Amino acid sequence: MTVPGKYLRGIPINLSEINDIAHAATSRPVILGGPIRLGYGTQGGSKADDFDLPGLMLALKDIEALTYDILGSKSSFHNPESIPQRSRSTVEIARWSVKGAFVIKQHPDYPHVMCELETFRGCGRPDHCSFCTEPFYGDPDFRDITDIISEVDSLYHNGARYFRIGRQSDLFSFMAKDTGDELLRPDPKAIERLYKGIRKTAPQLKVLHMDNANPGTIAAFPDECEKIARTIVQYHTSGDVAAMGMESADPSVIKANNLKAMPEDVLDAIRLINRIGSARGKNGLPELLPGINIIHGLKNETPETFRLNFAFLKNILDTGLMVRRINLRQVMVFPDTPISKENNMDQYQYHDQFIKFKKKVRKKIDHPMLKRVVPIGTVLKDVMCEVYNGITFGRQFASYPLLVGIPSKLPTGRFVDITVSGYGQRSLTGVPYPLDINNTDPKLIYYLPGIGKKRAHTIIGKRPFIDQKDLYDKVEGIEETLPYIEFRD
Ligand code: SF4
User: What is the CA radius of gyration of the chain?
Assistant: First the structure.
């Protein structure tokens, strides 16, 4: 994992699991691929190390290309080490992604599968951020727009309905031109062609979200990026997030690590995305909001860095802007990145301070921000119930979904609309919308907006109700709750 994380129904694979898989397949080559070729690490604040798993072949470049070459040659199937390793080309992706789209049917959650569409990889900056592994992929290798649309078409005909335009380090730089500046100049027309084409070929898609955006690009090319943001909002589905790698608000850290944007640039980018994306969309969430990624453990970090990072976030909160997600992590140091030459991460000196900082941000920024982004009474559409553990946990399909806890047992694998009625630190509490007040689990009544314990008891004692008037006559102070309930026999 280049960006380790915690997820509702999955955790990153560990070496012993990889080993078990390798040894379960005895009569065929087992190839391991992906970012793990750069090293293996379990969490930020540590070093990604070399590892040795006997009986397993590591794809040193692209696993797709290696697999293709092995399958294409009978002799190498039994002797895969003899195959020269290479990177796949965008022409190959075009072919393989269309022919291989059927594979989504094998996913255990099919048809509820989020399909990530690659637009390009690599970074167009002449000098790179100290921690980043993306420059290992070279200059951006943009995929043809028609190829990406053909991939969507093939996935769509195989039942896919959820898409995220991901992988690239900056969607706003897709098809951007090198004009000799530090950053590539965005091409709004190319992004419009991409989004328009996807919607045309997949008219009934349910989710179309994006992933990363470089705040430096948005600040440097505000006119082009405003057009791009408007295109995204026109063709995507709501609840979208432009995750921005800010990394640090400390100018001395930014300089020492060659980061891409100064705090004022990031603030400009956040303002622009808010201006265009903050209206509430069909799924109950704002159309498009920025996310912010901050990394600690970079060169020149001091206790002052924590103060500056917190002050930056606090300013966003105080100026009324919205941010959907603040990702705080400790750097993972990969071999051959500039930072690896100076920081072996054996002991991250500010680890304790980082933990304190994280707690403070969760409490003082995330929590009030969540209340602003998703106020009580918001109806979130199509939350998929995924896990029951005393509470049913669900999420909307999204690039960066919010976790919703429903304090009752609901069938998993099913979608339900939810009225937001409370907050965890980074999650929501909700009840099904509309709530069938006559028959529902009594526990849920307590969680309806504007109810509380006492009124919940009264309602439970006086059930059933014929209609709103009947409820209104029998229970005092119920007005606020009426929009969220229904009356079944
Ligand atoms: S983090 Fe820095 S080096 Fe990496 S892709 Fe973004 S701008 Fe390029």
Answer: 25
